[in-house]
Amino acid sequence: MKSGLYARLVLACAILLSVLLTGLGIVLGQFFPLFAGNTDLTIQHHYWLYLITVLVVAFLISLFVAARMMLQYAKPIDEITRIAVRIAEGDYLARTRMNGPEYDNELSIAINKIASNLQEMSLLRTMENERLKTLVESMGSGLLMFGRGGTVNLVNGVLEKTFGLSKKSIMGMTYKEIGLPPVVETLIDDVFMTEQVHESQVQLDGENSTAYVSVYGAPVIGRHGNWLGIVVVMHDITKLIRLEKVRKDFVANVSHELRTPVTSIKGFTETLLEGAMDDPAVMKMFLGIIQKESDRLHLLIDDLLALSGMESEGFTLQYATVDMKDVIDDALSAVSRNLEQKKMKTITNIPGHITIEGDIVRLVQVMVNLLTNAINYSSENKTITISVTDANERIRIEISDEGIGIEHLELPRLFERFYRVDRARSRDSGGTGLGLAIVKHLIESHNGTVDVESEIGVGTTFQIHLPKKQDY
């Protein structure tokens, strides 16, 4: 380590004093014979000893005084230099002392101010880096950044998960080496070549599913207009694509379901106006068909309005203590006419009075929809079994029929709007295709679940699980 300024100054001062005092001694020694040419040799020796002693003492005193003077000015500079070196090495907590007059100077104040400013800048930079890292990692989109040479220098976890990549393995690789889909590579090529923003939608086909990604590529331009690279953002739009498909299917289904009864009503009305009303029997038959289609249209509109109301933000349930026996009795009364028409009977298994917190009107609606479904898809003289079981904090309701059954492949889509296993039979039975969608929504609004099991030719069982107490 290099010696400090103070040590160097003391050494230089000592050498200078030594030279000066030695020269002074030599000069004084030359003058001695002029004043005492015949002086005794012993006295001369004493004189030389005295002269040397005086010069040595003068040297030491002068050196001490000079050292003390230099200590006030040079030693603080040495310490400030050490502090400056520590600051230059990144130790922004280092500070010079301010507890002495020799340290209370503009240089010490300036060094401390520089250290304080650098510390603040370091903290701000650390905070900004943490914020950027948090933002990059927490954003819902995949992020990939390339330098001017086309190599990866930034990637977040979402992109790793989307494409099955590892951050450690792809850092420093070019975009053509990391295994991106060809469409994405082409987009990156276009951004590099044109230095313009490019967007594209990419379909990613997996083993069990298909995902859709919106890819946005843009050049990264520095503060002074210099080219730094490009950034690629990939946002998963699979849900949006599926929702758009659901919306299109819904519009198509509603249009179809509305058009069918309207077409029938219009056709039979035109036939009556063209002369068929002259025949009372034909007119009665046609009016009956018109009434049936009008009822079906009315039921469809009611179900659409009901489902729309349930899915709105303002939809609430009127909770109260509900006896499940009352719910089932009310539902059976509502479908009693349909049961009589098909000569069907019901079996209920309810052990005592089982009560829950729920909306009795909505629960009756659920039971009516499920019972109507069971009646419509069963032949005459069949039996519907309804059972309620107490399962600690929850209850289980089962509605089993002896109907035609449902294929296992059809079960996952059974609760979709307008989905019908047998469209012709559903339409003949007067169903709207919304009943089970309403059931699912109302049960989930009660914080419950609904499942279905079915076997072709044997029948179908719907299972509902509901909590006894609701969390408000």
TrEMBL record:
<protein>
    <recommendedName>
        <fullName>histidine kinase</fullName>
        <ecNumber>2.7.13.3</ecNumber>
    </recommendedName>
</protein>
<feature type="domain" description="PAS">
    <location>
        <begin position="128"/>
        <end position="172"/>
    </location>
</feature>
<dbReference type="GO" id="GO:0000155">
    <property type="term" value="F:phosphorelay sensor kinase activity"/>
</dbReference>
<dbReference type="InterPro" id="IPR003660">
    <property type="entry name" value="HAMP_dom"/>
</dbReference>
<keyword id="KW-0812">Transmembrane</keyword>
<dbReference type="InterPro" id="IPR036890">
    <property type="entry name" value="HATPase_C_sf"/>
</dbReference>
<keyword id="KW-0808">Transferase</keyword>
<keyword id="KW-0547">Nucleotide-binding</keyword>
<dbReference type="InterPro" id="IPR004358">
    <property type="entry name" value="Sig_transdc_His_kin-like_C"/>
</dbReference>
<feature type="domain" description="HAMP">
    <location>
        <begin position="71"/>
        <end position="123"/>
    </location>
</feature>
<dbReference type="InterPro" id="IPR003661">
    <property type="entry name" value="HisK_dim/P_dom"/>
</dbReference>
<keyword id="KW-1003">Cell membrane</keyword>
<keyword id="KW-0418">Kinase</keyword>
<feature type="transmembrane region" description="Helical">
    <location>
        <begin position="45"/>
        <end position="67"/>
    </location>
</feature>
<keyword id="KW-0902">Two-component regulatory system</keyword>
<dbReference type="InterPro" id="IPR050351">
    <property type="entry name" value="BphY/WalK/GraS-like"/>
</dbReference>
<dbReference type="InterPro" id="IPR036097">
    <property type="entry name" value="HisK_dim/P_sf"/>
</dbReference>
<dbReference type="GO" id="GO:0006355">
    <property type="term" value="P:regulation of DNA-templated transcription"/>
</dbReference>
<feature type="domain" description="Histidine kinase">
    <location>
        <begin position="253"/>
        <end position="470"/>
    </location>
</feature>
<dbReference type="InterPro" id="IPR035965">
    <property type="entry name" value="PAS-like_dom_sf"/>
</dbReference>
<dbReference type="InterPro" id="IPR005467">
    <property type="entry name" value="His_kinase_dom"/>
</dbReference>
<dbReference type="InterPro" id="IPR013767">
    <property type="entry name" value="PAS_fold"/>
</dbReference>
<dbReference type="GO" id="GO:0004721">
    <property type="term" value="F:phosphoprotein phosphatase activity"/>
</dbReference>
<dbReference type="InterPro" id="IPR003594">
    <property type="entry name" value="HATPase_dom"/>
</dbReference>
<dbReference type="InterPro" id="IPR000014">
    <property type="entry name" value="PAS"/>
</dbReference>
<keyword id="KW-0472">Membrane</keyword>
<keyword id="KW-0597">Phosphoprotein</keyword>
<keyword id="KW-1133">Transmembrane helix</keyword>
<dbReference type="GO" id="GO:0016036">
    <property type="term" value="P:cellular response to phosphate starvation"/>
</dbReference>
<dbReference type="GO" id="GO:0005524">
    <property type="term" value="F:ATP binding"/>
</dbReference>
<dbReference type="Pfam" id="PF00989">
    <property type="entry name" value="PAS"/>
</dbReference>
<keyword id="KW-0067">ATP-binding</keyword>
<dbReference type="Pfam" id="PF00512">
    <property type="entry name" value="HisKA"/>
</dbReference>
<dbReference type="Pfam" id="PF02518">
    <property type="entry name" value="HATPase_c"/>
</dbReference>
<dbReference type="GO" id="GO:0005886">
    <property type="term" value="C:plasma membrane"/>
</dbReference>
